[in-house]
Amino acid sequence: MIVRDLAEANKNERRVDSEGWTSVRLLLREDNMGFSFHITTIHKDAELEMEYKNHLESVYCMTGEGSIEDLATGEVHQIRPGIMYALDKHDRHILRADKGSEMVMACVFNPPVVGNEVHGPDGAYPAAEPETADTAGAVPPI
Ligand SMILES: CC(=O)NCC[C@H](N)C(=O)O
């Protein structure tokens, strides 16, 4: 069993800060769960264009308000506590936090994020290097 404290993880290398967001990665590939699990804060007024070409991501909003724009269709969905979105088509999108509103989200990535990935100029995290004997997990990807 793995038990971790968000407050502790927030003080160590599990915390990753980037432009407009902070991600605390409670589960990583090395945990062999087949996914990674992050608590991510989208900073006030942030506007983030992303396209996770190498990952599937689902996101659940716990606090704060904003919107997500699907760049393939132009559709805009409001985000508030209780809303989940899943980027099942590696959808290119813009996530916006409302003016003055910080959003706290629970995020799951498949395949799992390895460590301190941040977005490249293409809005994606790089594909992870293949696992070694040391990092290979017993649980196959979902
Ligand atoms: C919701 C979202 O995609 N935010 C960007 C950061 C990312 N989710 C992460 O936690 O690594």
TrEMBL record:
First-tier enzyme category under EC: lyase
Region of interest (Disordered), ranges: 123-142
Stated family: Belongs to the ectoine synthase family.
Protein name: L-ectoine synthase
Signal peptide annotation: none
Gene: ectC
Domain of life: Bacteria
Gene3D superfamilies: Jelly Rolls
Reaction(s) this enzyme catalyzes, per UniProt: (2S)-4-acetamido-2-aminobutanoate = L-ectoine + H2O
Protein task: Catalyzes the circularization of gamma-N-acetyl-alpha,gamma-diaminobutyric acid (ADABA) to ectoine (1,4,5,6-tetrahydro-2-methyl-4-pyrimidine carboxylic acid), which is an excellent osmoprotectant.
Lineage: Bacteria, Pseudomonadati, Pseudomonadota, Alphaproteobacteria, Hyphomonadales
Pathway annotation: Amine and polyamine biosynthesis; ectoine biosynthesis; L-ectoine from L-aspartate 4-semialdehyde: step 3/3
Entry annotated with the keyword Lyase: yes
InterPro entries, A to Z: Ectoine_synth (IPR010462), RmlC-like_jellyroll (IPR014710), RmlC_Cupin_sf (IPR011051)
